[in-house]
Amino acid sequence: MKLNLIAGRWVPGEEQAANFNPADVSDVIGHFARASESQVDTAVQAAREALPGWAGASPQERADLLEATAQRLLARKDDIGRLLAREEGKTLFEAVAETARAAQIFRFFAGEAIRAGGDAIASVRPDVDVEVVREPVGVVGLITPWNFPIAIPAWKIAPALAYGNTVVFKPADLTPACAHVLAEILHEAGCPAGVFNLVMGRGSVVGDAIATHADVNAMSFTGSVPVGRALAVTAAQTMKKIQLEMGGKNPMVVMDDANLDIAVSAVLNGAFFSTGQRCTASSRIVVQAGIHDAFVERLTAKMKALKVGNPLDQETQIGPVVSERQLINNLTYVDIAATEGAEVVGGERLDLETEGWFQAPALFLNANNEMRSSRDEIFGPCASVIKVADFDEALSVANDTEFGLSSGICTSSLKYARAFKRYSQAGMVMVNLPTAGVDYHVPFGGRKGSSHGSREQGRYAAEFYTSVKTAYSYAG
């Protein structure tokens, strides 16, 4: 059984849970300890006790830990990628790439640990010096989702440690194996006891215990909108600094002047790769009337040709849905789309060689932006195609959503590209690129119901993981 890491020691939980391969439910990946509320308290206290030493550690010490972690991840990326593919269901190629990205994130923040600086500002008063510095925010609770089980933990843990914070980390209950490997690597790399703590288990127990704990100074969460909103209310009771990344219903606009090959490729990737289980997935395809029929014909043919199967098979392009519960949700929305009047292409459950949660990718043709299937985040390989007359209608439809994470446009017009980048109500805008797929060294985040708080990743991560102090001194 895989154990929790608390105060530098591997400890069992009060219960345990089996972890299954979504492509073959007979494949048990392992048994993982589930922490109790009291164990979360122990982890928080360990992080609190370790905070002065880690906050006071030299930038080089922090950088060395993160670099050592990056090196170990890269050295093991093939094995970890295989574990990730078995646990979460994304293809082996995607899983190995995600592991390599986690390593790149740790390496980037190893550099940021050294580069952390401040400002010297001239005072308006004579003989007064002003310094502005950034200090660790304190004990940070991190709660991550199942869809990127090693990359998202990396982009929260790495900056937290780089800036001198201590961490209590709860991974998704569906994907504890990748989180456990990351904890093992940090431990082997020499992370001091209590600086990093892993507490696995249910959100209703472990997540709530982190959110309500008075000694947790900040909390970063990626997951569903309802849970994120509830955590925000809870965190306010203890005045926690909070960062939320919650979801999207991302539009990809295809204009009449778009390169058809580029547009089809971008939509195919954004809507269906990673089984559509990305908060940045292209789930609303907004297509101008002049190119609509040709685009739909080409996209439909390409979608039907995608190979759904075991993620460890080199020929597989689309892996399984992560769980039976998620598959049922996806199939429910396929039925909803049909009931609402959309023409559904694909979307059926697939019975393959192994018992798993497989689904054919789906297009909802002749959709409109008022349908539930066009407004709710499905989080599966399902995309609505909405026909519009011109750019103004396309922009209006794209922005008509409670979410605002990512958006895209395929066009050969500089005028349309510039206008879309300027007026799209999303935190990230792509031109002739998939809405999903971002670099690790630039800010990530959205607007409206998609995000709350400061951005993740890149140098902007310092906004959340540090607190600004202004210091005055008089030399008269």
Question: Can you tell me about this structure?
Answer:
The mean pLDDT is 97. The chain has 2 domains: 4-246 and 450-474, Aldehyde Dehydrogenase, Chain A, domain 1, CATH 3.40.605.10; 250-431, Aldehyde Dehydrogenase, Chain A, domain 2 (3-Layer(aba) Sandwich), CATH 3.40.309.10. Helix 1 crosses helix 7. It is built from 15 helices and 24 strands. A 7-stranded mixed sheet has the order 14-17-18-13-12-20-21, with helices on both faces. Strands 9-8-7-10-11-23 form a 6-stranded mixed sheet, with helices on both faces. A hairpin with a 5-residue loop joins strand 5 and strand 6. The chain has helices spanning 37-55, 59-75, 77-88, 92-115, 151-162, 176-188, 203-212, 225-237, 260-272, 289-305, 324-339, 372-375, 391-399, 414-423, 462-465; strands spanning 4-6, 9-11, 15-21, 24-34, 119-122, 128-136, 139-143, 166-170, 196-198, 218-222, 241-245, 250-254, 282-288, 343-346, 349-350, 358-359, 362-367, 382-388, 403-404, 406-410, 428-431, 447-448, 451-452, 466-474. The longest helix is centred in the N-terminal third of the chain and has 24 residues, at 92-115. It has 476 residues and is an alpha/beta fold.
